[in-house]
Amino acid sequence: MADKSLDIHPSALAELKSSITWYLEQNEATADKFVEEPTGLSNR
Asked: What residues contact 35, with CB distance under 8 A and at least 6 apart?
């Protein structure tokens, strides 16, 4: 099966990075779960 390319808008990527930073400041375990969500989408 061929790899599928995923284009992410730069603004969306910046918002994701900002959100990860915020979650890390709140609770590292929650941040890990938050990061797993979009990562898992790219593996479908």
From this structure: 20
* Model confidence, pTM: 0.61
Please give the Cα distance from 16 to 10 (Å, whole number).
10
Question: Any idea where the domains of the chain sit in the sequence?
Answer: 10-35
CA–CA dist 3, 6 (Å, integer)? 10
Integer-rounded Cα Rg, in Å, for the chain is 12
Q: What is the mean pLDDT of residues 9-34?
A: 90
Asked if 42 contacts 6 with a C-beta cutoff of 8 angstroms, the reply is yes
Tokens found for residue 31:
């941040």
